[in-house]
Amino acid sequence: LKSKYLDESSERKRLSNEVIELKGNIRVFCRCRPLNENETASGSTSVVNFESSHDNELQVICSDSSKKQFKFDYVFKPEDNQEVVFDVTKPIVTSVLDGYNVCIFAYGQTGTGKTFTMEGTPEHRGVNYRTLDELFRISEERQGVMKYELLVSMLEVYNEKIRDLLADNSTHPSKKLEIKQSADGTQEVPGLVEARVYGTEEVWEILKSGNRARSVGSTSANELSSRSHCLLRVTVMGENLINGQKTKCHLWLVDLAGSERVGRIEVEGERLKESQFINKSLSALGDVISALASKSAHIPYRNSKLTHILQSSLGGDCKTLMFVQISPSATDLGETLCSLNFATRVRGIESGPARKQT
Ligand code: ADP
Q: Measured from the CA of 255, which atom of ligand 1 is nearest?
């Protein structure tokens, strides 16, 4: 068992380093949701085309009938289910067990499936649940060679304020959380609840209770959730039983606030403040990832709470994955192009006019 583990572990490390060397450690996957019932009923057709022979390209038909081609590390088709999405994502998330810090983000306009991808529904569970399930499965498989402890925390960033979603907010409604640098130079949020977890069903219950806490104090749970970032942190404490080496790594699974620009009429009061905070933090995130992708000397982590919290898990040999979520509907064309352009900029790859179809 020991030698099997060592062989497997060094092979995984070798392959992972090879991939990082070839492609860097920042990935962008694009996921387009299917047309929904209302869109179908009103006769909408999809403005997003997928090429069956390429799993990394898509084409958007613009309002003047011109076509714009985009290329990412992977492009899911609307019919790709949660299992297919997780299969492609699995090697990245499970690398936390091999000692990597990992950040996964879902970016896009409200209603494009960010929560569906990350959280999912009871019938179609998303990346968060499937990841934990896989981490438990691998931990069990490595029993006797590696010992792992898994802890989960859940927090929300709303208007640049951090809220602990697992704390008893009824007794500490105004408990303010701040980011501090710990002795080893990593960013920590002192006082953040960390729940030790032993099985996937327990995690599902914790996620449910965290989500309930998200809506406290807001008139509409959906509205608030689209205007705040929700971060699930999985801490993996690993101990190699062969050489005694101990590791502590974080996997962050982030459902970002909606990226849509708000209409001019709506922009006043609270809504104006919220949208300014969202714009600021999403562009700060874009700036950090593109600075990392271009290997810039200065990475502007401190420009938002979101990037500051994630500082120790973004960059270096940490792995980053962004899901850019889009809608196929013509009515969302403007936002779709904005999201695809953002993701293109983040990844440091060029988009261009459509390739000739053969
Ligand atoms: P967001 O979090 O971006 O606001 P949601 O995850 O709430 O969007 O998705 C909006 C609606 O679309 C939900 O009813 C969700 O179940 C549905 N949906 C999103 N993506 C898909 C998909 N790939 N397949 C089927 N339904 C989806």
A: 2
116 Cβ below 6 A of ligand 1? yes
**For the chain, percent of residues with pLDDT exceeding 70:** 85
Going from the C-alpha of 219 to that of each of 54, 76, 277, 320, the distances in angstroms are 44, 34, 19, 34
pLDDT at 70: 95
Check if 82 has its Cβ closer than 6 Å to any atom of ligand 1. Answer: no
Of all protein residues, whose CA lies closest to atom 23 belonging to ligand 1?
33
Residue numbers of the domain that contains 244:
2-219+228-351
Q: What is the ipTM of this complex?
A: 0.99
**Given the CA of residue 108, which atom of ligand 1 is nearest to it?**
3
pLDDT band at 274 (very low <50, low <70, confident <90, very high): confident
CATH code: domain of residue 104: 3.40.850.10
